[in-house]
Amino acid sequence: MRIDIVTIFPEYFGPLGVSLIGKAAARGDIDFHVHDLREWAHDIHRTVDDAPFGGGPGMVMKAQVWAEALDEIAPPAALQAARGVPAAALAAPGGAGPRLIVPTPSGVPFTQASAARYTGCAQLIFACGRYEGIDARFIDEARARMPVDEVSIGDYVLAGGEAAVLVMVEAVSRLLPGVLGNERSASDDSFGGASSGAGAPPDDGSAGGPVLPGPTGTGAPGGRPDGGWSTGNGWSSGGTETAASMAGLLEGPVYTRPRVWRGREVPEVLLSGDHAAIARWRRDAALLRTAANRPDLIWRAAADPGTLSPRDWQVLSAMGLSGVVRRDGAEPDAGGMAGEPARLPAGPENMAH
Ligand code: SAM
After folding, report:
1. Domain with CATH 3.40.1280.10 in the chain
2. Contact at 8 Å (CB) between 83 and 150?
3. Which tens digit of pLDDT belongs to each residue from 32-79?
4. pLDDT confidence of residue 306
5. What is the DSSP track for 306-337?
6. Residues ≥6 apart with Cβ < 8 Å to 353
7. What is the pLDDT of residue 87?
8. Cβ-Cβ contacts under 8 Å for 90 (sequence gap 6 or more)
9. Across the beta sheet with 123-127, what order do the strands follow?
């Protein structure tokens, strides 16, 4: 993949030479080109901005300087050649032509799903805004030539697009083949790595039996990510998990040696060697953490009938959400929750913690 970054602060992108992404670039798997926007300015001061029409504070980046940069990085002639491929393929996220990404707090949210889609692109061009942003006519014109995404990395305002671009480039790059040491790492991550929201729930095998034991009150290491539930045998091995088991969820806690650290033990199931039980424990821990930290993701998953399994619903219920996860307030059926999937209420305000 080729990645072009246009900025007035090229030095901001030194970190692209570091760690896994630096190695991928050194191997030639990612071809980075960082450009100084001021190279396309014409006056002695290399001006790239001007006062906003309509008044107000701050400055606006000039359309002309951006247009000249884009013309050189993605020449119209090259775009014509790219149009030799079917138009649908060109316009698709994984199309053969370049794709312009403009970071802005007023853009659509950048998510793991966006990162995964961008891995299919041959060339990404990032336009780092500064000041009050870029003259909108540049973006309109670019959109007539290539796919353009205005993208936000979160509901806050940065001083410039550089940090946002570093975030996006890292999220995309680590999903490219060969960049991560272990390809499974990405699918095990929060949000399911290359997956978007919904993912296949694990095969429960059986939804029967207890899901979580009650609070231990001992302070012993618990199965619940934030403590309060003992691991014990309550994390039963209900079946197998898929690599996409974190799709749409946050990853649960992780541990390494030593087995006991400052009196705190690693959850026993992780030492059991029972892969199905470990996978189920991870799924349960992910559900609990997601419900606690990002209930919006649980509602999203609940909206897709294929995402949460009966066993998943049991876990959510055992967390104390039984009156919430099912609109009718019914407890899960101990013999399984076949039939109508449980439904969540309309909004986060109804979620009990
Ligand atoms: N006036 C703009 C507004 O209110 O939407 C904010 C401009 S901000 C000070 C300057 C630049 O920082 C933006 O053009 C954009 O490139 C970048 N930026 C700031 N916050 C961002 C965010 N949450 N996501 C992506 N880019 C952001």
Report:
1. 2-183
2. no
3. 999 999 999 999 999 999 999 999 999 999 999 999 999 999 997 666
4. 79
5. TTS-HHHHHHHIIIIIHHHHSTT-PPPPTT--
6. 292, 320
7. 52
8. 82, 83, 96, 97
9. 31-36, 2-7, 123-127, 98-109, 148-152
Pocket mutation for ligand 1, best pick of 60, 148, 149, 157 (most atoms within 8 Å of C-beta): 157
The minimum-distance atom of ligand 1 relative to the CA of 160 is 12
In the reported structure, the alpha carbon of residue 155 is separated from the centroid of ligand 1 by a whole-number distance in angstroms of 10
Q: Which residues line ligand 1 (CB under 6 A)?
A: 103-106, 128-130, 132-133, 152-154, 156-161, 164
Question: What does the pLDDT read at residue 186?
Answer: 76
Which residue has the least CA distance to atom 11 on ligand 1?
160
- In this prediction the pTM is 0.79
CA of 10 to the centre of ligand 1 (A): 18
Q: Taking the CA of residue 323 as centre, how many other CA atoms within 13 Å lie in the half-sphere pointing to its CB? A: 4
- What residue's CA is closest to ligand 1, atom 22? 105
Cα 316 from Cα 207, distance rounded (Å)? 13
Domain 196-353 has CATH 1.10.1270.20: yes
Averaged over successive runs of 10 residues, the pLDDT of the chain (353 residues) comes to 98 96 95 98 98 97 98 81 57 72 98 95 98 98 96 98 98 92 75 51 34 30 30 29 65 97 98 97 94 92 85 86 47 34 36 37
Res 80: pLDDT: 60
Q: Which of 134, 149, 158 to mutate to test the pocket of ligand 1 (most atoms within 8 A of CB)?
A: 158
**Could you tell me where in the chain the CATH 1.10.1270.20 domains are found?**
196-353
Fold for the domain defined by 2-183: Alpha/beta knot (3.40.1280)
